[in-house]
């Protein structure tokens, strides 16, 4: 027996087994269930099957590997090495034959389901297992005596070489089959999409011979205020370009409910908003392809995460039912469709689109995406996850139970409705510190690591200048103003006399705090106004009230961990968020930032079809809490208006920060507050 078979051990998987002598390494990998890639089906064309065989003694595995454990280089490998170069020690798994016991390492780039580490505040691996992959096939030539269509013979080859059954081809593709087959001398590369729910696979594109290019996909985070998208390489998940645009629906209403009202009041208004968002998304796709130098036809998939109103408007569904109890969705299932059905016309015409499932009428696919990214349903500890945009998606729970709600924070955390506000982009102030004694500020802008009082700051920011203040900047500014005694617990900015700084300037019947006055140099005046503080108070009260409501529902007053995600990017300061009272009290060491978790969820769903199945199952277990009809939400909202809070003690915060006891309410006017309360 030992003369006829050899032991093959694959690393890093540790899978091992005996195979007949002369078995190609690729075939051994298949037989043992080892993840080794191949696009050309073992024909020595694609080089995806590269492996690194070991040599010598492997006591851990109990084998000694001879130099001759694999067959010598053959002509295919030599040709490949000559043309493209094989890394030292590498072999093509489809060409090297097993001759005796051997240990074979499969490098990450040769694994189909490779894990790719996400570079973000919280690093986590994304498994690569995209729905659409390339398959090279050699197709039987037509035979007059045995008539069959080209598609039928392609099907036969896909079944034979790749075990892909009953593939379908849209009429638009049929016209490309014949020229590609003949040009490729009966060999073609196919982009085949496979449905994670077991539906029929589909050919999305075809190229003559072996296609050297790469497939790409779009991960789109469709927010009420901004649309952000990543263009990803579907082989390794790498983001090759990212961009964002303002959601053009803003002209129909700043927040979701005003867009629903627009649809209610204006016949055809929903269709107008659908057209606007689709056009913007399509333009963004084209922009990303151009920026990355990728042919739009090589973009074969898109995943979209969005809130329920955006979900309906994107799909061309009138969102009117979402504006009134019981907030019924047209469907809460994930939507798996052609990309053309959601207006993505600039990319491959047969590309697929996947919209993540919604959780409920106010808790959408964006919340599902946050859950997919942060996985509270796997946590041992109790975690609160707040993904903040114009709406906050809030999740609370652990592996036993997860609750979710959505809370209308408004666009202030995204820098909108803030007098000097802007999106997070180069030139935006993102960090602020205020000296509690002198009340002098210093700040940092996106694009430079220097503080404004560091030598070289002016030169470092010369290209973009200082243009405004973004979400994380305004949060820090207001929190710093509170810590420096420039703002009292009710949110009032004190006058110059009350605060002792000339940076507090009169602004109508209220005051503003000057962060930067560069008007003498034709630069901007950047201030935090009383209106800005009120906008932030409304936003943070909504966020806090939503989180607190979920805690009530779960019967807890404490949290083990808080994850902040969303508009403020990866750099929100936990201390400042807590000084502001955005989130319930928690050990500051356990408050972290996750960046754009919804966007990450979209990327995970793009790169890994098993993640689609996972989140489709998990959304049924997530229990939804409706904030809109819950009276306790209003109570929590009112109490949370104070900075940090009217009644909650915030013991962890008090142990690290003592807030000055100031009060600037002289019975005079804070007209902005009265105005807002009436509105
Ligand atoms: Fe394509 Fe080996 S499988 S080169």
Descriptive account of the structure:
- The chain is α/β, with parallel strands linked by helices and 679 residues long.
- Among the domains are: 106 residues, Beta-grasp domain (Ubiquitin-like (UB roll), Roll); 77 residues, Ubiquitin-like (UB roll); 123 residues, Domain of unknown function (DUF4445) (Nucleotidyltransferase, domain 5), CATH 3.30.420.
- It contains 18 helices and 31 strands.
- Strands 16-15-14-17-19-18 form a 6-stranded mixed sheet, sandwiched between helices. Strands 30-29-20-21-22-31 form a 6-stranded mixed sheet, sandwiched between helices.
- Helix 8 packs across helix 14 and helix 14 packs across helix 15.
- The longest helix has 25 residues.
- The radius of gyration is 29 Å and the shape is elongated.
- The termini are far apart.
- It binds FE2/S2 (inorganic) cluster.
- The site of FE2/S2 (inorganic) cluster (FES) has 13 residues, from loops.
Bound molecules: FE2/S2 (inorganic) cluster
User: Based on CA inertia axes, which overall geometry fits?
Assistant: elongated
Task: Indicate the percent of residues in helices.
Answer: 25-40%
Describe the main β-sheet briefly: 6 strands, mixed
Low-confidence stretches: 117-123, 669-679
CATH architect. name of the domain at 244-366: 2-Layer Sandwich
């Amino acid at each position: 027996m030992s003369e006829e078979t050899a032991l093959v051990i694959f690393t890093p998987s540790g899978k091992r087994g005996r195979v007949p002598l002369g078995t190609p390494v690729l075939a051994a990998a298949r037989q043992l269930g080892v993840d080794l890639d191949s696009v050309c089906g073992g024909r020595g064309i694609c080089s995806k099957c590269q492996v690194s065989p070991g040599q010598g003694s492997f006591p851990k595995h109990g084998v000694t590997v001879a130099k001759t454990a694999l067959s010598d280089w053959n002509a295919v490998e030599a040709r490949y090495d000559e043309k493209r170069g094989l890394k030292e020690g590498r072999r093509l798994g489809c060409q090297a034959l097993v001759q005796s016991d051997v240990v074979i390492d499969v490098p990450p780039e040769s694994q189909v389901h490779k894990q790719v580490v996400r570079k973000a505040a919280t690093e986590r691996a994304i498994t690569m297992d995209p729905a659409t992959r390339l398959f090279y096939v050699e197709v039987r030539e037509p035979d007059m005596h045995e008539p069959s269509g080209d598609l039928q013979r392609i099907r036969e080859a896909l079944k034979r070489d790749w075990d892909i059954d009953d593939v379908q081809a849209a009429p638009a593709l049929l016209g490309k089959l014949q020229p590609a087959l003949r040009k490729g001398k009966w060999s073609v590369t196919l982009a085949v999409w496979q449905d994670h729910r077991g539906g029929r696979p589909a050919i999305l594109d075809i190229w003559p011979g072996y296609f050297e290019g790469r497939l790409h996909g779009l991960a789109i985070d469709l927010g009420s205020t901004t649309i952000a998208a990543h263009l990803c390489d579907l082989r390794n998940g790498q983001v090759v370009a990212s961009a964002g645009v303002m959601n053009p629906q803003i002209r129909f209403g700043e927040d979701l409910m005003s867009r629903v009202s627009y649809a209610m009041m204006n016949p055809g208004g929903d269709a107008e908003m659908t057209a606007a968002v689709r056009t913007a998304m399509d333009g963004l796709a084209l922009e990303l392809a151009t920026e990355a130098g990728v042919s739009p036809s090589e973009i074969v998939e898109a995943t979209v995460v969005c809130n329920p109103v955006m979900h309906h408007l994107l799909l061309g569904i009138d969102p009117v039912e979402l504006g009134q109890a019981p907030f019924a969705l047209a469907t809460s299932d994930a939507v798996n469709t052609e990309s053309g059905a959601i207006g993505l016309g600039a990319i491959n015409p047969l590309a697929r689109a996947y919209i993540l499932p919604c959780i409920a009428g106010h808790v959408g696919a964006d919340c599902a995406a946050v859950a997919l990214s942060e996985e509270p349903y796997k946590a041992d500890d109790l975690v609160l996850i707040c993904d903040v945009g114009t709406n906050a998606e809030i999740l609370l729970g652990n592996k036993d139970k997860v609750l979710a709600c959505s809370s209308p924070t408004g666009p202030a955390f995204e820098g909108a409705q803030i007098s000097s506000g802007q999106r997070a982009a180069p030139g935006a102030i993102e960090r602020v510190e205020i000296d509690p004694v002198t009340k002098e500020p210093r700040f940092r802008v996106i694009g430079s690591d220097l503080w404004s009082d560091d030598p070289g700051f002016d030169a470092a920011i010369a290209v973009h200048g200082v243009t405004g203040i973004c979400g994380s900047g305004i949060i820090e500014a207001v929190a710093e103003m509170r810590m420096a005694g420039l703002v009292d617990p009710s949110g009032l900015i004190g006058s110059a006399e009350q605060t002792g700084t000339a940076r507090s300037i009169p602004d109508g019947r209220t005051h503003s705090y000057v962060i930067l006055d560069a008007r003498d140099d034709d630069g901007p005046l950047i201030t935090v106004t009383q209106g800005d503080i009120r906008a932030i108070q409304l936003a943070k009260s909504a966020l806090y009230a939503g989180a607190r409501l979920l805690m009530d529902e779960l019967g807890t007053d404490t949290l083990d961990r808080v994850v902040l995600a969303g508009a403020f990017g990866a750099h929100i300061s936990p201390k400042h968020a807590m000084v502001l009272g955005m989130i319930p009290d928690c050990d500051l060491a356990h408050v972290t930032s996750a960046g754009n978790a919804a966007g990450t969820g979209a990327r995970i769903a793009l790169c890994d079809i098993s993640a689609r199945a996972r989140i489709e199952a998990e959304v049924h277990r997530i229990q939804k809490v409706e904030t809109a009809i819950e009276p306790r939400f209003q109570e929590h909202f009112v109490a949370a208006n104070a900075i940090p809070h009217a009644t909650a003690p915030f013991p962890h915060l008090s142990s690290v920060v003592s807030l000055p006891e100031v009060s600037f309410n002289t019975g005079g006017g804070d007209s902005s507050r009265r105005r807002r309360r009436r509105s």
